[in-house]
Design a protein that fits this description.
The chain has 333 residues and is of the alpha/beta class. It has 10 helices and 14 strands. Bound molecules: iron/sulfur cluster.
């Protein structure tokens, strides 16, 4: 049996502790993932690596570039031939990696392409990190921001998501907590555990409706908590970490964009310090479509007029089906 190299070896490789650091320099700094190319390691050490370890290498299957905004969607194949998608989003002054934590997703949000594919498997944290490193290698640029908003529910793969966040911060990648956002539909026990364990990241909660029955229709996961339970956990997280929550709200025409929806949202968040990200639904899944741009702007303005901080999030990669909720649907090996 071979061990994953990202799990720090129990016994020092080559009998010396510093060799692990040298290997990580190759992987993290130089983006060299092949033991034979790690030329400052002795032949004996390289053989020991071959015999006992794997690096969670990802095979790039396809790469699509959105000609309008430069977003790149990557389809990667894992060692067991399962595929996942990751996205690199360019901004004026930085790059953001959107990584997947699972192949598939059990939550099954009705407007989400990933959710329609059902449950896959959890990714090892090395596979999450390798999405980031392989994208950096592909674009030959430093990526400074990471969002856990690709395929999967990060809190359904809690341990690996936690290890990936810590690796991004504590390895030479040195990405600060405010530049790492973990997105979840919200599981109170996991949100509280995240805070209790001192995992430092921004938290984005996929709300999509402040009306209980509508939220349950959009997120038909049997174990979905109630909105009051969710708010209680978010408050707990805030009191422990002092990090303000963000709520993600995918705009769906005729579903969650009416006056009642607006009023319920205002009532829910008016008295808490938080931000609402309004996201235009891209394309169409299960018949869900976005309201037009003007209607979303109006919804946003009305939230602001009610003293709710809301912004309209730029939807990157619409031309290549890389936008929110579109991963995996259009690509096949
Ligand atoms: Fe899963 Fe997120 Fe898609 Fe919902 S939106 S089904 S949580 S990947």
């Amino acid at each position: 049996m071979k061990f994953n190299l990202f799990d720090v070896p129990v016994e020092p490789i080559g009998g010396k502790k510093f060799i692990y650091g040298q290997i990580m320099d190759w992987i993290v700094d130089k983006k060299v993932f092949d033991f034979d190319l790690m030329t400052n390691l002795s032949k004996k050490v390289r053989q020991e690596l071959h015999d006992n370890y794997i690096v969670s290498k990802l095979k790039l299957v396809t790469k699509q570039i959105d000609k309008d905004d430069g977003t790149i969607k990557f389809l990667f194949s894992l060692s067991d031939n399962i595929t996942v998608e990751s996205v690199m989003i360019p901004s004026k002054d930085h790059y953001t990696a959107c990584v997947s934590t699972q192949a598939g997703c059990a939550v099954g949000c009705r407007f989400c392409a990933t959710g329609q594919g059902g449950v896959g498997r959890n990714l090892h944290f090395g596979e999450i990190i390798m999405q980031f490193l392989t994208m950096e290698k592909e674009i030959s640029q430093r990526i400074s921001h990471v969002v856990f908003m690709g395929m999967g529910e990060p809190f359904h793969n809690y341990e690996n998501s936690k290890l990936a966040v810590r690796f991004l911060q504590e390895s030479k990648l040195n990405i600060s907590a405010r530049r790492i956002t973990v997105s979840s539909v919200g599981f109170p026990d996991k949100i509280k555990q995240w805070a209790d364990e001192g995992v430092r990241s921004e938290l984005a909660i996929s709300l999509h409706s402040a009306i209980e029955f509508k939220r349950r229709e959009l997120i038909p996961y049997a174990k979905l908590c109630s909105i009051p339970e969710l708010m209680d956990a978010i408050n707990y997280h805030f009191l422990k970490t002092k990090r303000l929550p963000t709520f993600e709200y995918v705009m769906l025409q005729g579903v969650n964009d009416g006056v009642d929806d607006l009023n319920a949202l205002v009532r829910l968040v008016r008295n808490i310090d938080c931000k609402i990200n309004l996201i235009a639904m891209n394309g169409s899944t299960n018949g869900f479509v976005s309201p037009d741009r003007d209607a979303i702007k109006k919804f946003c303005k009305q939230l602001n007029e009610n003293r709710v901080k809301a912004t309209l999030r730029r939807s990157a990669g619409a031309n290549i089906f890389a936008a929110c909720g579109q991963l995996k649907a259009q690509s096949k090996l």
